[in-house]
């Protein structure tokens, strides 16, 4: 799949997954794509943990509420380390966001589905912290997100994107509403 097809075909899949395992070499490719993303001042604040052991997945899903991606045969957990990169600025959010998007595109290019799951992971109920404890993540890193990875078992439900002309212009902002 070329990059433009991957960009246009990718969407957030929230359905059930087939139990077919994701080969380790595919998980490596996906993580390599994430780690190849740009990083503010090259601080490389993003780290990754791929999980394909059913017992570890079971433990992780035991703390994820509400459940999402619980039938996926693999998961990639995204970690960040907040480092001041320039003056008083930290680019950790930009770093892990770029890494996640690269991985989502690689997942799509390899024929799998996924979803960027962050909202309730970083919420007040500390799901990310609980997941990090299960995975032995050091205290100076934060588990910020996870990506379930697998083949879709259900029909896709794509959201409709607004037309290009409603969201992009040349040389100035033109609101046509």
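Sequence proposed for the structure above (177 residues):
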């Amino acid at each position: 799949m070329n990059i433009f097809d991957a960009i246009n075909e990718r969407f957030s899949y929230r359905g059930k997954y087939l139990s077919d395992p994701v080969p380790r070499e595919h998980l490596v490719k996906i993580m390599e794509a994430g780690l190849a993303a740009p990083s503010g001042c090259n601080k490389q604040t993003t780290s990754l943990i791929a999980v394909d052991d059913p017992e570890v997945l079971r433990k992780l899903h035991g703390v994820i509420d509400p459940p999402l991606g619980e039938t996926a045969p693999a998961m990639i957990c995204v970690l960040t380390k907040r480092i001041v990169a320039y003056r008083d600025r930290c680019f950790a959010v930009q770093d892990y966001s770029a890494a996640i998007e690269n991985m989502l595109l690689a997942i799509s290019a390899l024929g799998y589905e996924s979803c960027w799951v962050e909202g309730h992971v970083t919420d007040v109920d500390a799901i990310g912290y609980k997941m990090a404890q299960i995975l032995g993540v050091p205290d100076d890193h934060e588990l910020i997100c996870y990506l379930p990875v697998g083949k879709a078992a259900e029909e896709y439900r794509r959201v409709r994107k607004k037309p290009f002309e409603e969201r992009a212009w040349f040389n100035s902002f033109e609101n046509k509403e």
